[in-house]
């Protein structure tokens, strides 16, 4: 039978990337993990006696007692460990033969290979982490910028969990009030009697329900911005050949990555790189110039440019004033050629920043509203960066002042949306004086949705689907 989440066998996994490095970390967890490890350790007594949170030096040994590697073992005793179980972390040398050897010895000692996310799964099952914190661990692994990391750390330290639990506490009070009222009216008030419609129309503690709804909506609204920090945005540099797109790409990257020449059509395939735009992870793409190309390779490049433009969150449109359509630009405020970029936007409007490049040699007219810059000298680049940040914030939203809690995964967003919808319907029914026994189940559903976010209410399927997306060793 294949191993499953939730069995309690001792597990082991490499937690660092495979390959050559100074050190590698191999994690173990499970009942009697330290004793088992002692069976393949040069100083079994020292290891068995080691208290929690101490480090023991020694050798991992093979089946014939031969030395496999010199290691440091950190010992953890239940419940004071990441998983809540007994465990040991082996810092060995980071070579593939060493790692294979140590993992082999662990298998001989009765450890099985951990499933993806199984350490976090056990931490959750043992009450060490709620689901929002468990998810933030994976966010931390993938965080691309300092700000992405800070957002994930806020969730790891429980900012989102607390907010969800706070909102849930409000809703539980509202629900309890409604249910009490229902019980009371069943027992004490004769149906259809004088007091019969008391049970209708009035949601006890309505103000609390409204406060909960407001806080849930704030959380839902945080999602796009959080997603921006987590996954980043796509910015595509476009414009006619020779406008200076590759020069701008290199300038923003602070590196000579793309080839720059005075020959039009130099960039044929697109080039991309991730940059941190004041903490926003940005996938920046340099593209082939847009024009009526005859060369088949160039035409394919242009087709790709159009595909990228269709997906972009931000389009940086570079105008070349030396190419002789300054007047048009001046009059209309944008390049006539911009329309030939024919940016199909299936999902949403991408923000377009149009810039006047080569301002070092061709100063823009005084009344021009375009961003003037020089990719060559760097003049105007800080202003461009500020405009890019502003455009993305206008699109994705800015963090509400003081709001530390934000949503960190699509799973959380779906559940908050479900809670908002149920709560809105509950309030609507109560406004229309519908009976409370129609309102109460909706409140209950909102409470359940919030319970699923933290994991208080969850099923094996949901947990498995979630943790199996994690890295092995986490
Ligand atoms: N004077 C000046 N020349 C520039 C500037 N930006 C690019 N160029 C020049 O314009 C030519 C085309 O630049 P490139 O970045 O390859 O343009 P692309 O075809 O749009 O990628 C090169 O000779 C660059 O040195 C600028 O800001 N000022
Ligand atoms: Mg180029």
Which helices and strands occur, and which strands form pairs?
Blueprint: E1 11-14, E2 21-29, H1 33-38, H2 44-49, E3 54-61, E4 67-76, E5 87-94, H3 96-108, E6 112-113, H4 118-125, H5 131-142, H6 146-156, H7 159-188, H8 206-231, E7 233-239, H9 245-253, E8 271-277, E9 280-286, H10 296-311, E10 314-319, H11 326-332, E11 351-356, E12 371-372, H12 381-396, H13 410-431, H14 436-454, H15 460-467
Parallel strand pairs: 1-6, 7-9, 7-10, 10-11, 11-12
Antiparallel strand pairs: 1-2, 2-5, 3-4, 4-5, 8-9
Helix pairs in contact: 5-6, 7-8, 7-14, 8-13, 13-14
Bound molecules: guanosine-5'-diphosphate and magnesium ion.
Strand order of the largest sheet: 3-4-5-2-1-6
CATH architecture type of the largest domain: 3-Layer(aba) Sandwich
Largest β sheet strand count, sense and barrel closure: 6 strands, mixed
H/E topology pattern: EEHHEEEHEHHHHHEHEEHEHEEHHHH
Count of the domains: 3
Strand content: 15-25%
Q: Find the CATH superfamily of the largest domain.
A: P-loop containing nucleotide triphosphate hydrolases
Distance between the termini: 23 Å
Instruction: Tally the beta strands.
Output: 12
Q: What class would the helix/strand composition place it in?
A: alpha/beta
What's the CATH topology label of the largest domain?
Answer: Rossmann fold
């Amino acid at each position: 039978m294949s191993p499953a989440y939730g069995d309690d066998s001792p597990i082991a996994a490499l937690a660092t990337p495979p390959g050559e490095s100074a050190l590698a970390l191999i994690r173990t967890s499970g009942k009697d993990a330290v004793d088992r490890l002692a069976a393949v350790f040069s100083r079994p007594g020292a290891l068995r006696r080691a208290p929690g949170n101490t480090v023991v030096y020694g050798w991992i040994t093979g089946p014939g007692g031969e030395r496999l590697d010199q290691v440091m073992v950190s010992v953890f005793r239940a419940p004071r460990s990441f998983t809540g179980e007994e465990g040991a972390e082996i810092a060995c040398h980071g070579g593939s033969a060493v790692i294979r050897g140590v993992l082999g010895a662990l298998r001989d000692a009765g450890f099985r290979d951990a499933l993806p996310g199984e350490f976090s799964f056990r931490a959750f099952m043992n009450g060490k982490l709620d689901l929002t914190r468990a998810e933030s661990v994976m966010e931390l692994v993938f965080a691309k910028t300092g700000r992405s990391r800070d957002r994930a750390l806020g969730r790891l330290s429980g900012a989102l969990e607390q907010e969800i639990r706070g909102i849930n506490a409000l809703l539980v009070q509202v629900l309890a009030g409604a249910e009490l009222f229902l019980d009371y009216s069943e027992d004490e008030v004769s149906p259809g009697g004088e007091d019969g419609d008391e049970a209708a129309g009035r949601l006890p503690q309505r103000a609390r329900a409204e406060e909960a709804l407001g806080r849930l909506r704030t959380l839902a609204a945080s999602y796009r911005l959080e997603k921006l920090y987590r996954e980043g945005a796509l910015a595509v540099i476009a414009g006619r050949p020779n406008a200076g797109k590759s020069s701008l790409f290199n300038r923003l990257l602070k590196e000579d990555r793309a080839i720059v020449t005075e020959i039009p059509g130099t960039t044929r395939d697109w080039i991309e790189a991730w940059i941190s735009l004041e903490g926003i992870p940005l996938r920046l793409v340099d593209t082939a110039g847009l024009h009526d190309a005859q060369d088949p390779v160039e035409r394919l490049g242009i087709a790709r440019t159009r595909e990228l433009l269709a997906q972009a969150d931000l389009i940086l449109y570079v105008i070349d004033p030396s190419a002789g359509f300054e007047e048009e630009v001046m009059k209309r405020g944008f390049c006539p050629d911009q329309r030939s970029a024919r940016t199909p936007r299936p999902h949403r409007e991408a923000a377009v920043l149009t810039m006047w490049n080569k301002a070092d040699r061709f100063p823009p007219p005084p009344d021009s509203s375009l961003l003037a810059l020089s990719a060559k000298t760097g003049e105007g680049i800080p202003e461009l960066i500020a405009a890019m940040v502003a455009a993305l914030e206008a699109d994705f939203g800015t963090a509400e002042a003081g709001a530390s809690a934000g949503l960190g995964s699509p799973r959380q967003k779906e559940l908050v949306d479900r809670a908002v919808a149920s709560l809105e319907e509950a309030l609507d029914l109560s406004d229309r004086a519908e009976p409370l026994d129609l309102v109460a189940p909706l409140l209950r559903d909102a409470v359940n949705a919030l319970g699923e976010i933290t994991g208080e209410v969850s099923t094996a399927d949901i947990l498995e689907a979630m943790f199996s997306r994690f890295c092995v060793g986490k």
